[in-house]
């Protein structure tokens, strides 16, 4: 993601013109305005409204894991054997989204006064807070934080470019991802 972000920061004439590369790193509104994409690429597009099932499954799954952990820690109950095996292997319903309108607007207020994508910044802050909770010496988790940082920075940068290109009145002081910096 770091390399991809650095490539996106290059002047447009120096940026690789590979359509598949651009198709792989862009999604949602950042794909709008791109040249006509091949049908093979469009076949793999997933509407953003379908992503809600990831959050629902995550809440249910993590709630179940928390319940198992609580039972184990406080009541001495063993983990289910299938779960223990699954964790060892891993190494340590769709809902319809309702589209109100199809127009993009400039968001204002709260964190939007500082960055174009406060949701990406909040995600980074969640991972950093977890890393601090796990301890500053946990190198593996800090590598996860580094991955999340560059992944979210790339997404925020692409969204920021989209907003700046779509709205001539887009706030000049607003940064893409990190307030006052980037």
TrEMBL record:
Residues 103-182 form the 3-oxo-5-alpha-steroid 4-dehydrogenase C-terminal domain. The chain crosses the membrane at residues 54-74, 126-150. It catalyses: 17beta-hydroxy-5alpha-androstan-3-one + NADP(+) = testosterone + NADPH + H(+); a di-trans,poly-cis-dolichal + NADP(+) = a di-trans,poly-cis-polyprenal + NADPH + H(+); androst-4-ene-3,17-dione + NADPH + H(+) = 5alpha-androstan-3,17-dione + NADP(+); a 3-oxo-5alpha-steroid + NADP(+) = a 3-oxo-Delta(4)-steroid + NADPH + H(+). Keywords: Endoplasmic reticulum, Membrane, NADP, Oxidoreductase, Signal, Transmembrane, Transmembrane helix. It is found in: Endomembrane system; Endoplasmic reticulum membrane. It is a multi-pass membrane protein. Its EC number is 1.3.1.22, 1.3.1.94. It holds the Pfam family Steroid_dh. One of its GO terms (biological process) is dolichol-linked oligosaccharide biosynthetic process. Pathway: Protein modification; protein glycosylation. Plays a key role in early steps of protein N-linked glycosylation by being involved in the conversion of polyprenol into dolichol. Acts as a polyprenal reductase that mediates the reduction of polyprenal into dolichal in a NADP-dependent mechanism. Dolichols are required for the synthesis of dolichol-linked monosaccharides and the oligosaccharide precursor used for N-glycosylation. Also able to convert testosterone (T) into 5-alpha-dihydrotestosterone (DHT). This is Polyprenal reductase. It comes from Pan troglodytes.
